[in-house]
Amino acid sequence: MRRTWILSGIVLLGLAAAGVSAQRGGGGIPPTGTIEKIKENLYKIGGAGSNTTVFITAAGVVLIDTKFANNGEAILKQVQTVTDKPVSMIINTHTHPDHNGSNDYFKDARPTIEVVTHANTKKWVDANPQSKPAMKPDKTFTDRMTLGKSKDQIDLYWFGAAHTNGDAFVVFKALRAVCVGDVMAWKMAPLIDPATGGSVIALPDTLEKAVKGIKNVDTVIEGHGDVNTWAGFRDYARFNRALLDAAKAGLGKQTPEAIAASLKPKFPVFTKEELLTDLEYGGTPLSRAVINVNVAFQELRGEPVTTNFGPPRAGGPGRGGEGQQK
Ligand SMILES: [Zn+2]
Q1: 20 vs 312: CA distance, rounded Å
Q2: How far does the centroid of ligand 1 lie from the alpha carbon of residue 198, in Å?
Q3: What is the mean pLDDT of each run of 10 residues along the chain (326 residues)?
Q4: In whole angstroms, what is the distance from residue 273 CA to residue 29 CA?
Q5: pTM score of the predicted model
Q6: What's the CA-to-centroid distance between 281 and ligand 1, angstroms?
Q7: Is 302 strand, coil or helix?
Q8: Cα separation, 164 vs 305, whole angstroms
Q9: How many whole angstroms separate alpha carbon 257 and alpha carbon 293?
Q10: Separation of 224 CA from ligand 1 center, angstroms?
């Protein structure tokens, strides 16, 4: 029941954020974007929910995440501008419907397409009555799995809970690139979904394990928004550790706003106070940091986490409160 609330919250938030965006003249959640080349045989399509990463292999096209529902045709049209090969595999980085919503378009057209996720993501998809059959994985992994070989090799890694507890890291070995799903999106502290095992306390450990465990990568494709560098990802891991450390030190003494603001000098990118273009999930980087300090407080106190997915209030950073689903 709770999970359904949270999933609905994500979608509702998308709509709420669309309102924010419309006020800014952006017209709401953008449609499926134009395909952008990242490296040879590796592309990204933005808009309409998650980034969709497109990896062209000898056997066909591997899609990592498929956006909200009803974007399959638009995704395929973009893919067809760079290759004639059919889609042969879908990897979903986690369970949220802005990442696996259009699986069905591809799977209906070609039932042999394999859907691959982490085992915990399968658990959440199976448990959600709103899941379509095409969201259900055909293949899962636990800690690590390799698919394909030589220039087509994909290494899947899992390092622990973060945004959910089923977040896959998808490494394109020959291209020195990795998709990190919503473990890192929009260059801000991640949205934590407690209903699918997400945790602010676990997050820095998971990120540090990823920094140590993934080798020879220079390009990081975030779950939403831009492509980052490995150095940017390492800095992000340090930021999330600093946020948790500051929350622990300030628990019962400082406000979440003061704690988040204390991170500004060292981590200016992750504590910006402007709304970002095309951000469906609402909030500024600083308001997200405030939210995650609130989440840390709740986790540290052993209270239920009531993550706020809502956009910030006009005239100030968001607080854990408005937009809550319960
Ligand atoms: Zn997500």
Answers
A1: 9
A2: 10
A3: 44 40 49 96 95 97 97 98 98 96 97 97 95 97 98 98 97 98 94 93 98 98 95 98 98 97 97 78 86 96 77 32 28
A4: 20
A5: 0.87
A6: 10
A7: coil
A8: 13
A9: 8
A10: 9
